Amino acid sequence: MVGTTVAPAATADAGRVVRTLADAFADDPVLAWLLPSGRRAGRLTAHFRATVGGDVLGDGLSKVSPYGAVLVHPDGWRQSLLHQAGHAASYVRAFGHRLPWAVGVQAALERRHPREPHRYLSYIGVAAAGRGRGVGSALLAAVTAESDAAGLPTYLEASSPRNARLYRRHGFVTVDVVRPLGSPPLELMMRVVGG
After folding, report:
1. How many CA atoms lie within 13 A of 51 on its CB side?
2. Separation between Cα atoms, residue 175 and residue 150, nearest integer Å
3. Residue 87: per-residue pLDDT
């Protein structure tokens, strides 16, 4: 299908990945709860600009396609304090007065994050123009095949029922459902090797 070609994301793809994810998450329930203002598009761009960087691009794990992107972290899934400090202004621009909620949700998710070795899909998104074309499935197939080859399970947090259904079709199972600080539900999902 058109748009389903998947390639490793290079550092040079950062701008495209930011734009793709900001578009893909424009209607995400959790980010809409965190960013309720009418300026959500700009705030999403600031958030993904702070999130997307050399620590998740350029190692061959994260992937891009013409309409989608997936950020994949190996075992070192936590952002360093140095990274967080370097992007503090971007996080403030993104979340404004909702920053304490964003930090609280992140902390709650980190407490439940698996401790055994795995690959973490922090964000997977398909731009509106690419939905329904198999882009999400192509991205998932690429990263889960590599996880299987490495002998590692794959973990993610599904922020919408529609996304959770897609992940289930690719072998993910729900291990918990959380609503940190009263957020919309997040399904914590794991895929075992060969799942």
Report:
1. 24
2. 22
3. 65
Q: How many domains does the chain have?
A: 1
Contact 94, 47 (CB under 8 A): yes
* Token pair belonging to 22: 């900001």
Q: Is 118 helix (H, G, I), strand (E, B) or coil?
A: coil
Non-local (6+) Cβ contacts of 160 within 8 A are 28, 29
Q: CA 69 to CA 157: how far, in whole Å?
A: 16
Instruction: Check residue 174 and report its DSSP letter.
Output: E
Nearest 5 degrees, angle CA 74-CA 78-CA 84?
130
- Separation between Cα atoms, residue 63 and residue 22, nearest integer Å: 16
Q: Give the span between the Cα atoms of 153 and 172, in whole angstroms.
A: 10
Which pTM was predicted?
Answer: 0.91
**Two tokens, residue 65:** 């396609």
pLDDT digits (tens, 9 = 90+) for 38-76: 788 999 998 898 888 656 787 889 999 999 999 998 765
Host domain of residue 132:
7-191
Is 108 inside any structural domain? yes
